[in-house]
Specification:
Length: about 210
């Protein structure tokens, strides 16, 4: 009768090891987020998302003479570059790699928020709101008001994607610094969406159909 009891003990120990490994992956060392956590996924994906916004803003800043567009571009470059630095700093502090082979937005799908009405990856493999390579090329080619209009249209959609991602994080995390940043993104980018919509109206144009649900 000792052998079955011994086998049961070994099985129980194995289960505990697997559970502990899972907890480590999610929460990491000392209660910090782990590699597969929503916080780590959000930091990595939002850093990539922000990088494109900064790139588009440099493009329009260097070709427009419009003071309001240049000011907006400067604000986006400054704000999102600073936030991107914070995302990278978190990953370093959590002793996690800044790059991963995990697919974009996996952190939402794997934590129960990958269904209808949430931020998802497009067929082209882009995160919500991100411009396609063809759209980025067109932005670089256009001049004058046409370039300003396309920039505003792309950036409104880009901000909408950022808001979706930040709202997704707010449903998944209670970690103070991450939640605070996500809320700042929601508030800040929602305000800029309203501003850019008005700027488009002044140029006789409209935003693309919203991706927000």
């Amino acid at each position: 009768m000792e052998k079955p009891a011994k086998n049961s003990l070994l099985i129980a120990c194995a289960v505990l090891v697997l559970v502990a490994a899972g907890i480590f992956l999610v929460w990491g060392r000392g209660g910090t987020p782990g590699d597969t956590s929503a916080e780590a996924g959000f930091a990595r994906d939002m850093a990539t998302h922000h990088a494109q916004a900064v790139d588009m803003s440099f493009t329009i800043r260097d070709k427009t003479q419009s003071k309001d567009v240049r000011n907006l571009a400067y604000d986006i470059i400054t704000t999102q570059s600073n936030q991107r630095g914070m995302f990278m700093g978190w990953l370093q502090q959590w002793e996690l790699d800044q790059a991963t082979d995990r697919r974009p937005m996996a952190w939402m799908a794997e934590h129960g928020h990958g269904g209808s009405g949430t931020a998802t990856v497009s067929v082209a493999g882009l995160m919500p709101g991100m411009a396609t390579p063809d759209e980025l090329t067109k932005l670089k080619e256009l001049q004058g008001t046409a370039a300003e209009v396309l920039y505003l249209q792309l950036m409104i959609r880009h901000h909408e994607g950022g808001v979706q991602m930040a709202e997704g994080l707010l449903k998944l995390s209670t970690r103070d610094e991450v939640v605070s940043m996500a809320q700042k993104i929601v508030n800040g980018q929602t305000g800029e969406i309203k501003l850019m919509t008005e700027m488009l109206k002044q140029r006789g144009a409209q935003p693309y159909p919203t991706i927000l649900k």
